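Ops channel
N.P.: pipeline sanity check, posting one input/output pair.
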C-alpha cells in the first residue's frame, strides 16, 4: 500500500526533571554501571509538575509552528498514549482543545510502544479516506506514574515525554510500506492492568497491582526478532531503493545493536538517544525524529525506516522519505 503524504513538521516536549542513574542508586539497589551496560540508559526525564496532556499540547504546537500550519488547517488529530490523564475524552480531543482547533476528526490509537508507527499508518490512511489535507499526530507518555519503583529491573528503563508530527497530503509518496504486526502475548511478558471494577457488588480487590509488569528477558528476545523482521520486510518492500537511516523505538541500546548485527546496517545508521530519555513508549520515535532533524542527522531526501515493538505484542515499521 502507498500513501501520498509527507511529514512537514516535528515537535517534542520532555519534563524538566532529569533523573540520572546515580539518583536511582540513592533510592534502590542498582548502579550506573549495571544500567549503562545492560541498556545504554544514563538518564531519563520524569514528570513532576507537567501533565501528559500539557506535554502533548506543547509538542503539537511546536510541530505546527515548524510546519507553519494554523489550528484550523488541521482536519484530523490522532493521539497515541497508554498513560492519558483521562479515560475519556481521548488525548486527540484534549489536544484539539489545547491548540484551539475548532473542527477536526479526533481519535486515539493504542498499540503499546509500537503506537507511533501504527498511528502514522492510521492518520495517513484516514486522511485519504476523509479527504483531509493536513493531520496532526501526537504521542505522549507519562509512564513513570505506572512504575513499581521497587521493581529495579523495570523502573530503570522508562521515562516520560511527548512528540508530534504534522502530516500533509502530497503529490510524491513520502510515507511508505506500513508494516503492522501483532502476536498474542501468551506468556504475559508485558502489560499494565487497569483497576478492576470495584463497584459495591463486585468481588474485585481494591489493591490490584496496576504497575507495568514485564519479563525482561522474554521481551528482549521478542524485541530483537521483531526489529530484524521489520527492517528486513521494509528493505524488501523498498526494492532497489535503499534505506539510508533507521529511527528505531528507543528501549535499549543492546536491542538496537542486535538489530544492526542481524541486518547489514551499521550501528551509525541507527539514531540513538535512549541514553538521555530512556524508553518513553510511543513517544520515543517522534522525540528522536525531532532531535535527529534539529541536529542535521536527518537530511531532506533521506529514506528513513521507523521500526518498533511493544506490548501486545505489537511490532512493525514504516518508511518515511524525509521532506523537511
Ligand atoms: N540493577 C542491578 N541489578 C539488577 C537490576 C538493576 N536495576 N535489575 C536486575 N538486576 C539483577 C537481577 O536481580 C539479576 O540478579 P541475579 O543474577 O542475582 O538474580 C541480574 O541483575 C540479571 O538480571 P536479568 O533480568 O537476567 O538481567 P538482563 O541481562 O536480562 O537485563 C533487562 C534486564 C530488563 C535490562 C533486559 O532483559 C531488557 O532490556 N529487556 C528488554 C526490556 C524492554 O526493552 N522492555 C520494553 C519493551 S517496549
Amino acid at each position: 500500500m502507498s500513501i501520498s503524504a509527507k511529514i512537514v513538521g516535528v515537535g517534542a516536549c520532555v519534563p524538566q526533571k532529569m533523573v540520572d542513574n546515580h539518583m536511582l542508586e540513592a533510592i534502590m539497589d542498582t548502579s550506573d554501571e549495571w544500567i549503562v551496560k545492560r541498556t545504554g540508559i544514563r538518564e531519563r526525564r520524569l514528570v513532576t509538575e507537567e501533565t501528559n496532556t500539557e506535554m502533548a499540547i506543547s509538542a503539537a504546537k511546536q510541530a505546527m509552528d515548524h510546519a507553519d500550519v494554523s489550528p484550523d488547517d488541521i482536519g484530523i488529530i490522532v493521539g497515541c498514549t497508554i498513560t492519558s490523564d483521562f479515560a475519556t475524552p481521548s488525548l486527540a480531543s484534549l489536544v484539539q482543545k489545547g491548540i484551539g482547533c475548532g473542527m477536526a476528526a479526533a481519535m486515539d490509537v493504542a498499540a503499546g510502544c509500537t503506537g507511533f508507527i501504527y498511528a502514522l499508518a492510521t492518520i495517513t490512511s484516514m486522511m485519504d479516506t476523509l479527504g483531509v489535507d493536513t493531520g496532526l499526530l501526537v504521542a505522549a507518555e507519562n509512564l513513570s506514574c505506572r512504575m513499581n519503583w521497587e521493581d529495579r529491573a523495570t523502573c530503570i528503563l522508562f521515562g516520560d515525554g511527548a512528540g508530534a508530527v504534522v502530516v500533509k497530503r502530497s503529490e510524491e509518496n513520502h510515507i511508505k510500506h506500513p508494516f503492522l504486526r501483532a502476536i498474542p502475548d501468551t506468556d504475559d511478558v508485558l502489560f499494565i492492568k487497569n483497576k478492576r471494577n470495584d463497584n459495591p457488588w463486585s468481588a474485585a480487590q481494591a489493591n490490584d497491582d496496576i504497575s507495568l509488569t514485564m519479563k525482561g528477558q522474554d521481551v528482549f528476545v521478542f524485541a530483537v526478532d521483531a526489529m530484524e523482521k521489520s527492517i528486513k520486510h521494509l528493505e524488501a518492500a523498498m526494492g532497489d531503493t535503499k534505506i539510508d537511516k533507521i529511527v528505531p523505538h528507543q528501549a535499549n541500546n543492546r536491542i538496537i545493536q542486535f538489530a544492526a548485527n542481524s541486518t547489514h546496517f551499521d550501528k551509525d545508521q541507527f539514531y540513538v538517544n535512549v541514553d538521555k530519555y530512556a524508553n518513553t513508549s510511543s513517544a520515543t520515535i517522534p522525540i528522536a525524529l525531532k532531535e535527529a532533524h534539529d541536529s542535521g542527522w536527518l537530511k531532506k531526501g533521506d529514506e528513513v525506516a521507523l521500526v518498533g515493538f511493544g506490548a501486545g505484542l505489537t511490532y512493525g515499521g514504516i518508511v518515511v522519505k524525509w521532506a523537511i
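N.P.: looks fine end to end. Residues 303 and 321 are 4 Å apart (CA to CA).
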